[in-house]
């Protein structure tokens, strides 16, 4: 065939990718790994910040898949990830490219430390990361390609089989399948296609998910506005790789990477990763009480003004009281505040306890053993 000539228009708004990346690194990377790395470089060039949650949402990947992609590039020496004492990811460094013929197995375990780009803020799922230009690295002596063994990539586990029509028919004839498919259709809001039924077969036969875990998986994805079965399958594989076998384990794991969890944590003056007990509190407010985030944050602000200790039980008292009173908006809260101010007995009781009447104490107090609750919170850190 005849050669073709390539032309391009000049544009100031562009991202430059080194030829070395295209020639040696791109061919072995999968879809998610390429998107994550290229997006980091694009944000670096624009001087913009991003977060794991933002990257996951932008490319319809899970946050776990984004983290796994970062670790993939760390293995090849293009990134270096930093962790705190609790093993939470706290920083990212972007290394300058080197020919992968110079990489060895030992170098893979200890990525290049020169010419790094360091994120100044914590690299957690909801935390923003700021990217800066890397420095020019000192020249590294090349190793002989013949003297080194090339790095081998591991095959990803839990590959979805190609199911036949007979296998699908056998699956549909099982005792509990009809109920499971009915539940899935209720979450998705339409009848399932044969391909989607095969995906649920994959969850049961290959991932060994229980019906309860599949139920929670569908609920978890739909609650986040994700009804695409490709996305649901990615979440399921991530959970399987993390050894999750029950809805409770999934809730704890998923909750720690939820944007709203970190937003609530910050509003209560908490830094770092949430404990399991703290995640359970926040998930109850979001899912069981079904409060919008702005109502939860308002309760958090009142909590901070009301106490310096045991803030989660204190906020629980506020939100439980609002739920029992049928609160759904800030207007409902204002009405409760006004009613409280007009109630002489309530004002007298509040005044005797707090020494004054203010809207931050206008909720039903629960009888908590704060010393015991504090021990529980500390033991879960």
Describe what you observe in this structure.
It is built from 18 helices and 4 strands. It is mainly alpha-helical. The chain folds into 3 domains: 119 residues, Winged helix-like DNA-binding domain superfamily/Winged helix DNA-binding domain (Arc Repressor Mutant, subunit A); 80 residues, Arc Repressor Mutant, subunit A (Orthogonal Bundle), CATH 1.10.10; 121 residues, no CATH class.
The helix/strand class is mainly alpha
Main beta sheet strand tally, sense and closure: 2 strands, antiparallel
The number of helical elements comes to: 18
Rg, rounded, reads: 26 Å
Question: What oligomeric state do these chains adopt?
Answer: single chain
For the terminal residues, how far apart are their CA atoms?
Answer: 65 Å
Shape: globular
Number of strands: 4
Tell me the β content. Answer: under 5%
Order of helices and strands: HHEHHEEHEHHHHHHHHHHHHH
């Amino acid at each position: 065939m005849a050669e073709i000539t390539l032309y391009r228009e000049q544009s100031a708004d562009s991202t430059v990718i080194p030829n070395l990346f295209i020639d040696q690194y791109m061919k072995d990377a999968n879809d998610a790994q390429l998107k994550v790395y290229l997006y980091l470089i694009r944000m670096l060039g624009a001087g913009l910040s991003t977060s794991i949650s933002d990257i996951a949402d932008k490319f319809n990947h899970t946050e776990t898949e984004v983290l796994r992609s970062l670790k993939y590039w760390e293995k090849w020496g293009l990134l270096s990830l930093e962790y705190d004492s609790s093993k939470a990811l706290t920083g990212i460094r972007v290394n300058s490219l080197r020919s992968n013929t110079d990489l060895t197995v030992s170098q893979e375990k200890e990525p290049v430390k020169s010419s790094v780009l360091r994120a100044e803020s914590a690299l957690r799922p909801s935390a923003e990361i700021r990217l800066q230009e890397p420095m020019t690295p000192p020249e590294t002596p090349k190793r002989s390609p013949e003297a080194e063994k090339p790095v081998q990539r591991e095959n990803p586990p839990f590959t979805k089989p190609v199911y036949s029509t007979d296998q699908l028919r056998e699956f549909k004839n099982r005792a509990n399948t009809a109920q499971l498919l009915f539940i899935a259709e209720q979450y998705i809001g339409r009848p399932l296609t044969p391909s989607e039924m095969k995906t649920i077969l994959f969850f049961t036969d290959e991932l060994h998910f229980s019906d309860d875990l599949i139920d929670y998986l569908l609920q978890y994805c739909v609650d986040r506005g994700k009804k695409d079965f490709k996305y649901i399958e990615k979440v399921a594989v991530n959970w399987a790789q993390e050894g999750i076998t029950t809805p409770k384990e999934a809730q704890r794991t998923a909750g720690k990477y939820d944007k709203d969890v970190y937003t609530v944590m910050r509003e209560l003056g908490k830094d770092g990763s949430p404990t399991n007990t703290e995640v359970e509190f926040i998930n109850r407010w979001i899912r069981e009480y079904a409060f919008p985030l702005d109502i939860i944050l308002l309760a958090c602000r009142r909590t901070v003004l009301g106490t310096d200790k045991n803030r989660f039980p204190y906020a629980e008292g506020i939100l439980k009281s609002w739920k029992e009173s049928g609160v759904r908006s800030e207007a409902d809260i204002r009405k409760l505040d006004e009613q409280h101010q007009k109630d002489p007995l309530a004002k007298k009781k509040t005044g005797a306890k707090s020494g004054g009447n203010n809207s931050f104490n206008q909720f039903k107090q629960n009888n908590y053993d704060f010393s015991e609750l504090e021990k529980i919170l500390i033991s879960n850190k």
